[in-house]
Design goal:
Four copies of one chain form a homotetramer. By secondary structure, chain A is α/β, with parallel strands linked by helices. In chain A, 36% of the residues lie in helices and 18% in strands.
Chain lengths: 184, 184, 184, 184
């Protein structure tokens, strides 16, 4: 199998965040989805409500493509703006599939599921761009700076696209993108 | 979350089979992919070579959409005819995701990975249509008749589409599609 | 990480089979569990009823150790004879974990979940010993002979232990145990 | 299947943390493993090095039982102090299995994999006790207080055991342990 596929496939970026979205967070997520679709990027998310639904609605408003990685077994489930439902049956272990399927991640708000996704992404060397999301610190150390902070949805989309393209170039060139502090 | 989504999404059908495909099996798989795409069905497969690649090539020759559920971590991997790579990192545990994502399954030829997928699909009540694939018997019983046998690729596509539509109707109507003999 | 661990750990063998067990199948499974425990082998299974419960009951009657790989999220679930419940939350994708955790597999009876496990095991090169279980044939070929047939529970235990030891030796020696026909 | 199993099984608690452990973190982890084993608790971890190995070494020094949920396919892998290797083949998606298998979690130090495990555990309502581990804050909110802070290894063991027993009681009583802010 080739692993040096020319980058002719459409870029895919994950949008992650809370399912019971606070209103200002849902508004940001919708704008992120729209901004990505306007830049010809497909989005992948966990397929459910809140940030996931808002991002898909935004993407569809600009004619984008939306992929939902569903935790359950029902192909008819997921929010109304999902084009392509992936039915995993894995429960929330599907969170790692959500972030791996994107070449970069945008985190908008978020609760504990989002925190697990941020951990999986950073551990895999997948760039994470954050908008009003988690900040974290290890005991006795300065705040972790691995999440790329964005100022607004357009900035988040642009930073995520740039980081995704860099990562795909690195992978194509055989350069590892796994950071030093990842603990397995 | 709604689980009674109107069936406005495109139908998705899984195509499964051996990765080191014997030539007549690859030819059948290509025709199955083409026949499904001609009937406006998207296909999902394991994303790699052999039957998976042939089915995707056939689908693309008719302008279809192809989804690859990849076992590894590399978004640049998968065969050249995959539109939407889903990067699972799950190894061959991804086989259950391949069959769950289709509303029905077409098995063409196949080796042991395909056998695992047939088991997962039948256990979940997902219809399996077979073309020159596994036949199985439990000790002391007549041959298992759960796999719907097809005569040629067009017949396989049509039987799979009919079975998929019936299953989605049953799910929407709240009718269980899990067969009695499934052992968990 | 070392991958050449001396074989000082207790041998673990998977017992798989139907959850709604026909009585003669449950009786065989209980004897298999007992025969393995008498030979100082721990057993792993899917943790639920039928063959799984019977095998665990048999193992405990001989003072053995029992591991249950549970599909759900509840650490208090599983049959009454499980010593060590592994809580996966993965649904029936946990089937591949059941077979990988054993160094060989004994299949007793079985329905479609068992068929998926046989496929995963054979694809991984994990030996499968069968007692009144599935037999399968690929179209136009003679019956597949990959499953090692056993005559009775003691024979199944002995054949599984011999095959497990051979496989661990091969792994320690760096010899691949993956068969040629596995399709990924 | 019964889900109201009397709590006669041995208590299992997860120990998570960085695989490239800083020395003071490894020392803490070893003491946590020992403290849990002295209180008759089995430990489960990711099976590899660093905090995982130190915790297992500590547990074995007090005669405890150790379970390793391995990411790979090799039953001979894992650290030297693992009694029961669970071979998942799931890569780091196995992180959610590590935390679900414990009735509570002790996090010692940690890098991004640990962060994903903390997210999975808190999202599932599994209590997390922390020793020099991550602290996190959502934008514009006070620091998240979901992680129970411990002063030393014995305190961590005792707090984790108390929280695990409370959680199992709640589950047996049918009381949900899923917190309000979990986003799926």
């Amino acid at each position: 199998m080739r692993t040096d596929k020319p980058m002719t496939r459409q870029l895919i970026i994950s949008v992650i965040g809370e399912s019971n979205a606070r209103p200002h967070i849902a508004a940001l997520a919708e704008q992120v989805g729209r901004a990505l679709a306007e830049r010809d990027v497909a989005i992948v998310c966990g397929g459910l409500g809140g940030v996931m639904e808002a991002a898909c609605r935004g993407a569809k408003s600009a004619g984008g493509t939306t992929i939902g990685i569903l935790p359950g077994d029902n192909p008819l489930s997921g929010n109304d703006y999902i084009d392509i439902p992936i039915v995993t049956g894995l429960g929330y272990a599907r969170n790692s599939v959500v972030v791996k399927t994107g070449s970069a991640v945008v985190a908008v708000g978020g609760a504990y599921g989002t925190l697990s996704e941020i951990g999986h992404a950073l551990g895999d060397g997948i760039p994470v761009v954050g908008l009003e999301t988690w900040e974290m610190t290890r005991s006795r150390e300065p705040a972790d700076s691995a999440i790329i902070r964005a100022f607004d949805p357009a900035d988040a989309a642009e930073k995520a696209i740039a980081a995704a393209k860099q990562r795909l170039s690195d992978i194509a060139a055989g350069i590892s993108t796994i950071p030093e502090i990842y603990d397995k």
